[in-house]
Write a structure and sequence with these properties.
It holds the Pfam family TrkA_N. This is TrkA family potassium uptake protein. It is a single chain. This protein is α/β, with parallel strands linked by helices and 228 residues long. The chain has helices at residues 10-21, 33-38, 54-57, 76-88, 101-110, 118-131, 161-164, 166-170, 218-226, and strands at 2-6, 25-30, 45-48, 67-70, 94-97, 114-116, 135-140, 145-151, 173-184, 190-199, 211-217. The chain has two domains: 2-116, NAD(P)-binding Rossmann-like Domain (Rossmann fold), CATH 3.40.50; 121-226, 2-Layer Sandwich (Alpha-Beta Plaits). Helices cover 34% and strands 30% of the residues. A six-stranded parallel β-sheet has the order 3-2-1-4-5-6, sandwiched between helices. Strand 1 (2-6), helix 1 and strand 2 form a beta-alpha-beta unit. Helix 4 (76-88) packs parallel to helix 5 (101-110). The longest helix has 14 residues, at 118-131. It is elongated. It starts with a strand and ends with a helix.
């Protein structure tokens, strides 16, 4: 896929580097030549231009671009102006970053396809990790439902999914299991990694060190993980 990312701050640069590493074509735009030069070796294309100027945006290959990500956060006016111009140019899909509730409301009024608040989302994920025992990572699908990666409680080790009876007791589904293994590195040293075992069956046995990928209400997942 082809992406245009506006803004080479921490968010935009990290996203551009990751998408490039995944094999996508990325055009990253910033009005700072220093930032453009800093990331030109890590992102497919980096361009210095003012994204609040319509003639400048018209030089970008919008017709061939699948997604425009507006990563400007700190400069409210520039974010709103850039978003409005991309809407005027009929970008196929616009994802915009908001840093406050007011910022989000304005972006919603402009009709962007998706609004993200990475700082808030990261803080919420961290709060859930700190609150729930054994949680490694979490992804909120709504205010109530979450997908959580958690170390398998010791009481389930050696039991099959049927024997653990997690769904019936806690109304929580085990989607899959991440199982530790050893990955060989270039210099013949090893480091731990995890393998996804696929869709679990009733006969799948939970092993020591397994990470369960759980889906359900956060209050039910909390009951499961905090039970003795």
């Amino acid at each position: 896929m082809q992406y245009i990312i506006i803004g080479l701050g921490n968010f935009g640069s990290t996203l551009g580097i990751q998408l490039t590493a995944m094999g996508h074509e990325v055009i990253a735009v910033d009005n700072s030549m220093e930032k453009v030069d800093a990331f030109k070796g890590e992102i497919t294309h980096t361009i210095c231009l003012d994204a609040t100027e319509l003639p400048a945006l018209k030089t970008l290959p919008l017709n061939d671009t699948d997604v425009v990500v507006i990563g400007i956060g700190e400069h409210f006016g520039a974010s709103v102006m850039t978003t409005a111009l991309f809407k005027q140019l009929n970008a196929k899909r616009i994802i915009a970053r908001a840093i406050s509730p007011i910022h989000q409301k304005v972006l919603e009024a402009l009709g962007v396809d998706q609004i993200i608040r990475p700082e808030q989302e990261s803080a919420e994920r961290l709060a859930k990790k700190l609150e729930l025992k054994g949680v490694i990572d979490s992804f909120g699908l709504s205010d109530d439902y979450n997908i959580v990666e958690a170390l398998a409680p010791a009481r389930y080790v050696g039991q099959s999914i049927r024997e653990a009876n997690i769904r019936n007791e806690y109304n929580v589904n085990v989607l899959t299991i991440l199982r530790p293994n050893q990955s060989r590195k270039f210099w013949s040293t090893t480091s731990p990694s995890k393998t996804v075992i696929g869709v679990v069956s009733a006969e799948t046995v939970i092993e020591a060190g397994d990470v369960l990928v759980l889906y359900g209400l956060i209050k039910d997942i909390e009951r499961l993980l905090h039970a003795e």
